[in-house]
Amino acid sequence: MSLHPDVSAVTDRIIARSKPTRDAYLALIRRERDQHIERPTLGCANLAHGYAGTEEDRDAMKAGRGMNIGIVTSYNDMLSAHATYYRYPEQMKVWAREAGATAQVAGGVPAMCDGVTQGYPGMELSLFSRDTIALSTAIALSHGMFEGAALLGICDKIVPGLLMGALRFGHLPMILIPGGPMRSGLPNKEKAAVREQFAEGKASREDLLDAEIAAYHSKGTCTFYGTANSNQMMMEIMGLHMPGAAFANPGTKLRQELTRAAVHRLAEIGWNGDQYRPLGECVDEKAIVNGAIGLLATGGSTNHLLHLPAIAAAAGIVIDWEDFDRLSKAVPLIARVYPNGAADVNAFEDAGGMPWVISELLGAGLLHRDLKTVGGSDMTTYAKRPSIEGEALVWGDPGASGDDSILRAPSAPFAAEGGFRILTGNLGRACIKVSAVERDRWTIEAPARVFSDQAAVQAAFKAGELDRDVVVVVRFQGPRANGMPELHKLTPPLGVLQNRGFRVALVTDGRMSGASGKVPCAIHASPEALGGGPLARVRDGDVIRMSADTGDLVALVDEVEWNARLPAEAPPAAEGMGRELFSLFRASANEAEKGASAVMAAMGW
Prior knowledge:
This protein is an alpha/beta fold. It folds into 2 domains: 5-183 and 218-396, no CATH class; 420-571, Glucose Oxidase, domain 1, CATH 3.50.30.80.
């Protein structure tokens, strides 16, 4: 089927807008390919330093006949998703030798977890950990010792950060290697119910901890469809994984063989062969559009409204929220995965997973087919489902949806549109995800209650001060103010208020969560309150209209009075927990729609 005209139009819009920066980027990676410091040009002392730590592969490296693969890893054993990578480097070295290549750990990147830091000071480092990861990736690849790279990362900021750094070495072939989701534990809906009971004082801390541990119980990503699993979906639909790699569980033969295949494939797509796949050419305008379409079609994380623009910028591509909005009107919602449904990612995978989604979107003309993917000739390679037959890894037809309560064809979707909207008005420009919000709550008009941190919201909730129709405004949460933390701790109390029958909404210049759910939330509001953005003018009692139906984000205040108001003063910058170390990032960050990134802002793209 031919490409949907709206998808084609958005792609053309992005290509035209990006031409100067994309041309500059492609020129950069061509220069790097021709002139970059590489192993054959390094001095003998330099090479000796690079070879000294690896006696087993030293002779092969010295001979220089095969690719040396740099492994950039996010391994740590405090976080379940990254703990899976413990044995990967030693296994990958063996698999590289099978393919006539060698591999070395080029470096590590930090991997922090929003799930651990939610509601605490460490969360204010979270978003800028992405920039730190980008810088760490660049350092890891800066030695000129590698002809390709394997990027081991999976969770919220890690995959975007790896790509942002790796794309500055876009002349190298690279493959992202996921670790997979943990097996299903306590269902997400039951876990959320215990959280709400605890918020109301109906469950003890012990009850809550037991429920959380039953949900998050082993190695692998969390099983809800938050930012981590949205990352894996996006890498798959952009053609940057081995086909079908996104959601195979850790510790399985399938997961092992997919990783082995990725190492072998890297050895095949180097610059000395006829299948050369430089990362910077793989991540083009069409790949970025595919990533956006995947987010909309599956109800993915709102955090990628920051991450995808930042990834795109690293490759000289400019994408904005209007592109998402236009695509959302053309792309139907074809997946229901928690928090947009009851199923977790394991049930999503069992129902057909990414091979089924990609096959259906290709068949409906809603996805670019002609990408330069790492895994094959084009995106049709990713419409095949991997399995183990005997000892061999094979790919076959994904078949029909295994459960139409989880996956439905584009011709009979859960919703005709992708559930993303831009909101505009005298409160600035924000975005809202409505795929899990009941239609009768798409428009909320109620008096504001204004806060400067989420702890104050929780205190007001516990005191009964929010038991009414209310628009909760949480400001001074933008990237320049405090690093744009997620406000996920607000989900249970706001959900309780909604369950009590009140009409409730959230407006913030901060982030909400990859697990944004049933409460309507206008997030990433720009310009942010710090520096005089419009949220700084809101006062308690102002009636706010927030409507995904009409695209309004308006304080219903007389225009003369509104313009005469002085912006509220921001609270002083917090110290401790290392936050002061990130003041340079906060001061330099660009706006949310451009990715809320200091390193991308510094490049001027």
